[in-house]
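I hope you will forgive my troubling you with a question about protein structure. Could you please explain, in whatever detail you think fit, how the structure tokens follow from the sequence? Thank you for your consideration; the sequence and its tokens are set out here.
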Amino acid sequence: MLTSSPVGRSQLTAEPASPKREARAEPASPKREARRRVISQDGTPIAYERSGSGPALILIDGALCSRRFGPSPKLAPLLAEHFTVYAYDRRGRGESGDTRPYSPAREVEDIAALIDAAGGSAFLLGLSSGGALALETAASGPGVVKVIAYEPPYVDDGGERGGAAHKGQLERLVAAGDRGGAVKYFMKDMVGAPAAIVVLMRLMPWIWRKLQAVAHTLPYDAAVMTDFRIPRAHFASIGVPVLVINGAKTDSRLKAAARTIAGVVPGAQHLELAGQTHNVKPDVLTPPVVEFLNGPAFAAAKRG
């Protein structure tokens, strides 16, 4: 699987800066104290939940996921024992807004707004395409203290597997109103899930409806990945500690991408988690995350 979804680079071009808008956290709902919003630079509301105490840690989900659907609901409570965890809905998902036109740079601004709400500095933990977004944020602006990226899916680093075509096909399907087709294309043609898995997912309407609801954001993830090739020059500018992790049982392309990124980012470390696939188990991922983020040094040894 090539996404930390519930089922399964390139240097961003600088855009003209919009008028500077100070990120502001809005008051929490009286019914749920941890439920909040920040307003991103372009005016988009970004919904998040805060839990735990300690240094700020922002969780960045991969394709089709949100703070209530995917890895975050199980991962956030484990990490909240050590950090103040910010689990949020990426734009276009859950309760966050979706101001057009979309640009990966806007997602970086969303994270910057969360960092501001957290007091001006934070750790970032990104899963799958969220890992790519975490690295992009570290390369683009201040406030990032450390980054952990779990299996950013740069699976076409040589440009020979058709990665450049995925974004356009997803956009065509979404524009035609075929959200189910976009999810199917993502799972079968991009992730490589067997056709039987796709059929099985469609037979679980309570899951399939959730996937279709955020299918319009699949081109966003493809844009973040920019042809699924590692942006070497851009990542070489990252100046904070970085740990890149992959599972020992994951796709060989994901393993290669993790090792390559660790070699590109100055001083980055690499870790392989024994027994893990792209859909990493939260209780296995948590210990090395805590060790790397809380410790002054980290031994990148294999873990069981």
About this structure: Residues 59 and 142 are 17 Å apart (CA to CA). The first helix runs from residue 72 to 79.
